[in-house]
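[job 0412] stage=fold_complex status=start
inputs:
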Amino acid sequence: MQVKDYKGVSKAAIQRMPKYLRYLLTIKNDGEQNISSTDIANALNLNPVLVRKDLSYVSSVAGKPKTGFSVSELIVDLKKFLGYNNLNDAVLVGVGHLGKALLSYSGFNSCGINIVAAFDNDELITDTYILDKRIFSTKILEEKVKELGAKIGIITVPTKAAQTVCDMLVAGGVKAIWNFAPMHLQVPDEIVIKNEDLAGSLALLSQKMANRIENN
Amino acid sequence: MQVKDYKGVSKAAIQRMPKYLRYLLTIKNDGEQNISSTDIANALNLNPVLVRKDLSYVSSVAGKPKTGFSVSELIVDLKKFLGYNNLNDAVLVGVGHLGKALLSYSGFNSCGINIVAAFDNDELITDTYILDKRIFSTKILEEKVKELGAKIGIITVPTKAAQTVCDMLVAGGVKAIWNFAPMHLQVPDEIVIKNEDLAGSLALLSQKMANRIENN
DNA sequence: TAGATTGTTAATCGATTAACAATC
DNA sequence: TAGATTGTTAATCGATTAACAATC
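[job 0412] stage=fold_complex status=done
writing structure:
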């Protein structure tokens, strides 16, 4: 088996990969065996050349002129690229509505992330379960994260607690932070952080709306 | 009062604006009157030149050498740029965990968006309230959206229902869709859409982790 | 074969950073 | 005044698109 080194893939391209994978899974389900970059591009409102370039980074088998790409093979390649076969253990801190939403979402298991435990301050819910995930007290966060060896920390606590929780997760040994609290967190250089900024998305949406109306 | 035309602001810059605003609000709370672009940049891990360029798009008053920018004035300018003073009415469809999380989040009111109603298929929760937002049956979605005149539709339903709900919202007259379902939605050209793609974010996080570990 | 489709190189577009003069 | 800080222009970097030869 040939080994790809995945060099030079742009950030934007990385974020498109799960979209390709999802689309391919749906058409595979419809019984499609082959697909052209043009068809993928049309379905996802992208430029066909961009799709070809993205797929060239991950595909182990070249697309064939006239027939296009093998759906099954692309799916395998995309899953490998995205690391969906080897799960990373994660813990989630803050079992409010959003925390519950993420804990209940079964789709993460097929996205390379496995939430193994949750933490919350509220004594009423500690030692209860959401699906098969136990909720522990935040008091034992650091020690428990060490024990579990979790590598990703998901933060869904209120803004004012976010930095403290972040520090505890880092002390517990996580290598990456996925932050849903609306604030910028400070982490050591070696820690990877991804901020999920809804206000930023909303700003973009509002701006597009304003411009759209203006141009009518 | 001078009128800014906000031309040439990059998408990336638009998404940074709420971050600046949030940071300025916290330091205003700490009693700071002035702030330099360098200090903002350090706090948010950005390049100072980038911060100055971004702020130059929105600030009605130039920063002063030696003292920097007036915190209060920047706050006013950012709020105006982001349209946080004139609220857009929105409806939310799909009152699961994520839907509840968004309905319960009081912070949207200060982000220019006002959720006026929600919809769900589940008869058990129709005509109940979350905060002051009433949950209606999805059956009357189109007519109710028209009646309310909502301009933004927020989709938090399962994947398989997302496109149908999207079409109903568009038929109801919304101008923008904020989609949290993990799939690509098709909308008419004149409708603005923003996909909140957690799988894409996660892909980026995983990739960064993999590279970080590799480079050690 | 002819035509659809691929994959690559070059050109363009967009965003960030570097350099530096202006000024409070 | 001197130095911190701004704002702008040019250079660089990164990502997308256009052009086109290769090929099943």
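[job 0412] summary: Residues 10-13, 47, 49-50, 53, 64-67 of chain B lie near DNA strand C (CB under 10 Å from a C1').
[job 0412] exit 0
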